[in-house]
Amino acid sequence: MDSDLTLIIGLVLVILSIPSIMSAFSEGHTPRVASVVIIAGGALVVWAITQKPGGYSLIEIPDVFVRVVARFIP
Q1: pLDDT digits (tens, 9 = 90+) for 19-59
Q2: Which helix (H) or strand (E) holds 21?
Q3: For residue 67, pLDDT beyond 90
Q4: Helical axes 32-51 vs 3-27, angle rounded to 10°
Q5: CA 47 to centroid of chain Cα atoms
Q6: Which of 3, 13, 25, 62 has CB 3.0 to 4.6 Å from 52, enough for a Cys bridge?
Q7: Is the pTM of this model over 0.90?
Q8: Is residue 65 within 8 Å of residue 45, measured between CB atoms?
Q9: Angle ∠(69,17,31) on CA atoms, nearest 5
Q10: What domain of life does the UniProt record list for this protein's source (predicted)?
């Protein structure tokens, strides 16, 4: 798997788990599934950063996102 794709999948997982965590805390439940998803997303992000020589900068992330989406949209 490409490190750009891994980075984007990890970031999407982390971002999508935030509402689940907020919902669980507001209802007084423990966010078990959201915690697992955020750990998995974080692991994907860390793996992507370590696999790309030089890593990623914050300025690069929108360009990487567009490149990854452009590969899958005909």
Answers
A1: 999 999 999 999 999 999 999 999 999 999 999 988 899 99
A2: helix 3-27
A3: yes
A4: 160
A5: 11
A6: 3
A7: no
A8: no
A9: 165
A10: Bacteria
**Contacts of residue 4, Cβ cutoff 8 Å, sequence gap at least 6:** 48, 52, 64, 67, 68
DSSP string, 58-73: TTTHHHHHHHHHHHH-
Can you give the pLDDT at residue 45? 95
Distance, CA of 42 to CA of 63 (rounded, Å): 20
Contacts of 18 (CB under 8 A, 6+ apart): none
Q: How many domains does the chain have?
A: 1
For position 74, what pLDDT does the model report?
A: 78
| Cα distance between residue 28 and residue 31, in whole Å | 9
Residue 60, phi then psi, degrees to nearest 5:
-75, -25
